[in-house]
């Protein structure tokens, strides 16, 4: 038997189990909010920018060939910045209790397409530590690249500093709660329709018609307990009169 629901029937089903849908919605938002605010560790981010320019810093004009060469070197620089050679010095200079492998996971190196600017971003539970690591990484890279590749085309464009708001980049409780609200709503509606689909009990005359595919000849109206008692009293009174 194929079951199809009209829009009106779907709305009726949702209305019938509205308490269930709202309960799941509120529960999902509440749990996510509590976890985001009280259990997840806030992570802060600090970024510094490195400019890759010409080897001959005294020239005032750039040729297209020089820029193309610099752009080709950026991918190499991205790898070098996160290499153990650079990170080990960063750890020593800042006296960090961390391995180069773990520090590597905290650092993200990126650059815009056709841009000679490299962004070095660091994430850490402590904002000041993230700032220190980002700036030290840029400084060590600028110094060591001269020896590693025999070039002098790296300048620090901007150092990391505390922002005015100083807010963590993750978690974002309001965003998490908004996502949880959508998931909770979908989950509540899904469970509602699943319960309705799995519920095979016969409740109405339409259910009988759909199940047996036979015409309905008549209906018995429901009788309340009070009505039944009244009818019993009337029958008893009539019997007594007949006697």
TrEMBL record:
Annotated transmembrane regions: 18-40, 174-195
Cellular localisation: Cell membrane
InterPro entries: Bact_polysacc_biosynth/exp, LPS_length_determ_N
Keyword set includes Membrane: yes
Major subcellular site: membrane
Domain Polysaccharide chain length determinant N-terminal: 3-94
Cellular component aspect of the GO annotation: plasma membrane
GO molecular function terms noted in the UniProt entry: protein tyrosine kinase activity
Record flagged with keyword Signal: no
Keywords: Cell membrane, Membrane, Transmembrane, Transmembrane helix
Membrane topology classification: Multi-pass membrane protein
UniProt family annotation: Belongs to the CpsC/CapA family.
Name this polypeptide is given: Wzz/FepE/Etk N-terminal domain-containing protein
Protein species of origin: Psychrobacillus psychrodurans
Lineage: Bacteria, Bacillati, Bacillota, Bacilli, Bacillales
């Amino acid at each position: 038997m194929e079951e199809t629901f009209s829009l009106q029937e779907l709305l009726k089903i949702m209305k019938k189990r509205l308490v269930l849908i709202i309960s799941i919605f509120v529960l999902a938002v509440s749990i996510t909010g509590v976890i985001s605010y009280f259990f997840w560790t806030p992570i802060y981010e600090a970024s510094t920018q490195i400019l890759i320019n010409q080897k001959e810093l005294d020239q005032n004009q750039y040729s297209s060939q020089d820029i193309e060469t610099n752009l080709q070197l950026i991918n190499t620089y991205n790898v070098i910045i996160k290499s153990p050679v650079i990170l080990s010095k960063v750890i020593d200079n800042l006296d960090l209790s961390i391995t180069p492998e773990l520090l590597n996971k905290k650092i993200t190196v990126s650059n815009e397409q056709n841009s000679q600017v490299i962004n070095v971003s660091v994430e850490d539970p402590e904002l000041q530590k993230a700032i220190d690591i980002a700036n030290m990484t840029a400084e060590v890279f600028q110094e060591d690249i001269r020896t590693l590749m025999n070039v002098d085309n790296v300048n620090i464009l901007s150092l990391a500093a505390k922002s005015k708001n100083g807010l963590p980049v993750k978690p974002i409780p309001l965003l998490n709660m908004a996502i949880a609200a959508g998931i909770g709503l979908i989950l509540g509606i899904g469970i509602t329709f699943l319960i309705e689909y799995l519920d095979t009990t016969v409740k109405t005359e339409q259910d009988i018609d759909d199940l047996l595919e036979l015409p309905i000849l008549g209906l018995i109206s429901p009788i309340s307990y009070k009505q039944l008692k009244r009818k019993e009293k009337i029958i008893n009174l009539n019997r007594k009169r007949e006697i």
